[in-house]
């Protein structure tokens, strides 16, 4: 097995040599590479989903589902605690379709306290063309940010706003009881309001620049850009973002962040049986758009680990 790196101190790549099995990699090696480099890419091991189960268990088995997430994802393996999530889907003319649009760099579920610490992406089938998963180091992004935006984001938190009409919140929160849905939101650190037409409004406040789990570095890591990109579309009615004083995020700051991210972004070229582990407190991820709907990249989320 060969170990190389994506950037200076970010992102380890483990490349299989003939006869290597990913299941032979020790938990200590995984832990050390993850905590130092924020990402581990496993290439060429031709890993099966059964082997993938064995490997992900090495770091912790507190797997999460996508309840309260912003999209609809199919779940498999939940019964035996091996929750795997499909790529996000959308309903189009009554049919479930995979979402194929590009996604900017974001952290997973930073619009709720119930967020995963680790993300495992596993490639069943890559897209014929494009569809790369992208990643970026939140610590490096923060370092490059102008002092005035560092100061602004230190002073004001982000405010994630959701408005789910009757019929939608039931899907998102997987219940028909609005009080159960509200209870879930309150347990996730949100405040809620319900309209006369049974629309559920939620508000969640959190910093855009938290500390990483390992090393305690300040990182620009949040879910802002996926919400910003919806501005001006139909989805804006469902989901929007402001600073905590209600102001929009300054356009100039967004532009700077987009520029820094496009400079630091790394594309992961998928092959069947490859997988990647991300520290969701440091590594942001996204996706290049694609057309080939056979693309199948699964996600397993770990809520927390013991180290
Ligand atoms: Fe994501």
TrEMBL record:
GO terms for molecular function: 2-oxoglutarate-dependent dioxygenase activity. The lineage of its organism: Bacteria, Pseudomonadati, Pseudomonadota, Alphaproteobacteria, Rhodobacterales. PANTHER family: GAMMA-BUTYROBETAINE HYDROXYLASE-RELATED, TAUD_TFDA-LIKE DOMAIN-CONTAINING PROTEIN. Residues 22-301 form the TauD/TfdA-like domain. This is Taurine catabolism dioxygenase TauD, TfdA family. Signal peptide: none annotated. InterPro entries: AlphaKG_dependent_hydroxylases, TauD-like_sf, TauD/TfdA-like. Keywords: Antibiotic biosynthesis, Dioxygenase, Oxidoreductase. Its cofactor is Fe(2+). One of its GO terms (biological process) is antibiotic biosynthetic process. The keyword Oxidoreductase applies. It comes from the Bacteria.
């Amino acid at each position: 097995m060969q170990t190389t790196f994506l950037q200076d101190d970010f992102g380890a790549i483990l490349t299989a040599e003939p006869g290597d099995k990913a299941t032979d990699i020790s938990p200590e090696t995984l832990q050390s590479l993850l905590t130092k480099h924020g990402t581990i890419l496993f290439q060429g091991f031709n890993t099966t989903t059964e082997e993938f189960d064995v490997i992900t268990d090495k770091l912790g088995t507190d797997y999460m589902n996508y309840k309260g997430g912003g999209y609809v994802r199919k779940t498999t393996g939940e019964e035996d605690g091996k929750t795997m999530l499909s790529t996000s889907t959308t309903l189009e003319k009554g049919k479930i379709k995979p979402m194929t649009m590009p996604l900017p760099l974001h952290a997973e579920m930073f619009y709720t306290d119930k967020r995963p610490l680790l993300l495992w992406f596993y490639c069943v089938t890559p897209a014929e063309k494009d569809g790369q998963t992208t990643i970026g180091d939140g610590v490096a992004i923060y370092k490059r940010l102008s002092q005035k935006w560092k100061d602004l984001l230190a002073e004001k938190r982000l405010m994630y706003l959701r408005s789910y009409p009757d019929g939608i919140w039931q899907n998102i929160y997987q219940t028909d009881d609005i009080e159960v849905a509200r209870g879930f939101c309150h347990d996730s650190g949100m405040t809620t309001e319900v309209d006369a037409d049974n629309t559920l409004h939620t508000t969640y406040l959190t910093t855009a620049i938290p500390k990483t789990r390992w090393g305690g570095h300040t990182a620009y890591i949040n879910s802002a850009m996926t919400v910003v990109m919806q501005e001006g579309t139909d989805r804006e009615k469902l989901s929007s973002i402001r600073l905590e004083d209600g102001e929009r995020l300054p356009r100039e700051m967004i532009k700077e962040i987009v520029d820094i991210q496009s400079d630091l972004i790394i594309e992961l070229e998928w092959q069947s049986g490859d997988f990647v582990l991300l520290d969701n407190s440091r590594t942001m991820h996204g996706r290049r758009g694609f057309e080939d709907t056979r693309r199948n990249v699964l996600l397993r989320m770990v809520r927390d680990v013991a180290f």
